[in-house]
């Protein structure tokens, strides 16, 4: 399934990646279930792999119910 409902809106993989990144991305893979619950509201979390730049690949995570999002970058 390539599109998912996030906070009441249907989003594409590219749009989901932009929600996580806060900026436009070059490319995004299909959306997948993350098999984890949101740490803020307990809702379902989905993931998307994307490239914010030519030299970087990131996996982003977004709650389908609230504003929580994160990525796998090391701090």
UniProtKB/TrEMBL annotation:
Superkingdom, taxonomy of origin: Archaea
Q: Name one Pfam family in it.
A: DUF5795
Protein name in the entry: Small CPxCG-related zinc finger protein
- Which species is this record about? Halorubrum persicum
Cite the source lineage: Archaea, Methanobacteriati, Methanobacteriota, Stenosarchaea group, Halobacteria
């Amino acid at each position: 399934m390539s599109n998912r409902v996030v906070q009441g809106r249907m989003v594409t993989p590219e749009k989901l990646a932009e929600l996580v990144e806060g900026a436009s991305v070059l490319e995004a893979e299909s959306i997948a279930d993350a098999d984890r619950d949101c740490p803020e509201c307990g809702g379902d979390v989905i993931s998307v792999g994307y490239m914010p730049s030519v030299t970087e690949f990131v996996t982003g995570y977004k709650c389908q119910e609230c504003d929580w999002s994160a990525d796998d970058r090391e701090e």
